[in-house]
Amino acid sequence: MSTENPKLEERRARVEALLRGIEKERRIGVIGSMNADYTIDVPHLPAPGETVRGGEVRLLPGGKSSNQAACAALLGASVSMFGLVGKDDNGSFLLERLGRAGVDVTGVARAGRPTGTTLIAVDAAGENAIAYAPGANDLLDAAFVRAAEELLDCDVVGLCLETPLNSVRVAAARCHEAGAQVLLNYSPCSEPPSRDLAQSVDVLLVNEHELAQLTGLPEGGPWAEAQDALLDMGFSEALVTTGPRGSMVLGEDCARRVESFEVRACDTTGCGDAFMGAVLAGLASGYSLREAAELGSCVSAFAALGHGAQASYGTADQVVDALRQGLLG
Ligand code: RIB
């Protein structure tokens, strides 16, 4: 579909070329969480003490790390997942779905604890609230990381904070030392990172709320201050997602905005993970951080069109089709 907006047409063509250029040559490793998401659509998110009647409960594949791995693989990148699920039906379900997305799951172990589980409510505007029971994800400790030798063969590595922080620190240090490009999604945001963790990370990914929590600065404050605060912590580059205002690429001497793609959102669950998955795929394909962020904007907008996290992600062809149909503007 052509528009009368040449700038938008130019942008769509640029992103289409990025989608078409995703390569399999360099391997992505994602180590972290895998969850079974029990999701209910509700007219509004329940307030404390409130019960809200919703639609049918859906069981969908999720977990931030698993979502990021699935997104990158669907786009055409070569991806290995490292983590733990239970010996239960939900564990088999997650492995089957991730395998179907094209992710190598030989690095996922079955543990004697239930598979990680979430309860998710999604409101009429597509916003969500999530409660998380880590289950088997909590067994991802430093010993598991050290035993995952294939992780050290990966060129780009994705981490998040749904597994114990010490294992994230060990994984970041080992992969950084082995020469991989390490991306850390500081989500869900908890305690501030140690300096050694920050220095093992090549690119930090956060949303603007997490950035405020991390730096102690007010949300929407000047980017230069946030940039200085991150540099002081030991991070060198960061991508900050700012919802409908797109994202910011923060480096030692630059702060650049990347616009979002407008979309009629059905469910925003896992859109941040789609952004990270696309950035992993982009960096593994040799793109600049800015190009990877532009790819992330488009792919995360596509993810808002469908229900669930992984269940709403598309292949490069499907995202290109949506761009051409004008569903992402
Ligand atoms: O970011 C979305 C994800 O967060 C969901 O899939 C859920 O599992 C929680 O981990």
Automatic annotation (TrEMBL):
Activity control mechanisms: Activated by a monovalent cation that binds near, but not in, the active site. The most likely occupant of the site in vivo is potassium. Ion binding induces a conformational change that may alter substrate affinity.
Q: What are the EC numbers? A: 2.7.1.15
The active site annotation covers 273 (proton acceptor)
Is Disulfide bond set as a keyword in this record?
no
Q: In which pathway does it act?
A: Carbohydrate metabolism; D-ribose degradation; D-ribose 5-phosphate from beta-D-ribopyranose: step 2/2
- The enzyme's first-digit EC class, named in words, is transferase
Recorded hits in SUPFAM superfamilies, A to Z, give: Ribokinase-like
Alphabetically list the UniProt keywords.
ATP-binding, Carbohydrate metabolism, Cytoplasm, Kinase, Magnesium, Metal-binding, Nucleotide-binding, Potassium, Transferase
Amino acids binding K(+): 267, 269, 303, 306, 308, 312
- InterPro entries, sorted: PfkB_dom, Ribo/fructo_kinase, Ribokinase, Ribokinase-like
Task: Name all Carbohydrate kinase PfkB domain ranges.
Answer: 28-312
**Cofactor binding comment, as recorded:** Requires a divalent cation, most likely magnesium in vivo, as an electrophilic catalyst to aid phosphoryl group transfer. It is the chelate of the metal and the nucleotide that is the actual substrate.
Instruction: Please give the chief subcellular localization of this protein.
Output: cytoplasm
Residues binding ATP, per UniProt: 207, 241-246, 272-273
Where would you find this protein in the cell? Cytoplasm
Subunit record text: Homodimer.
Explain the purpose of this protein: Catalyzes the phosphorylation of ribose at O-5 in a reaction requiring ATP and magnesium. The resulting D-ribose-5-phosphate can then be used either for sythesis of nucleotides, histidine, and tryptophan, or as a component of the pentose phosphate pathway.
Similarity annotation: Belongs to the carbohydrate kinase PfkB family. Ribokinase subfamily.
The protein's matches in HAMAP family, at most eight in alphabetical order, are given as: Ribokinase
Name listed for the protein in its UniProt record: Ribokinase
Organism (species): Parafannyhessea umbonata
Q: By which gene is this protein encoded? A: rbsK
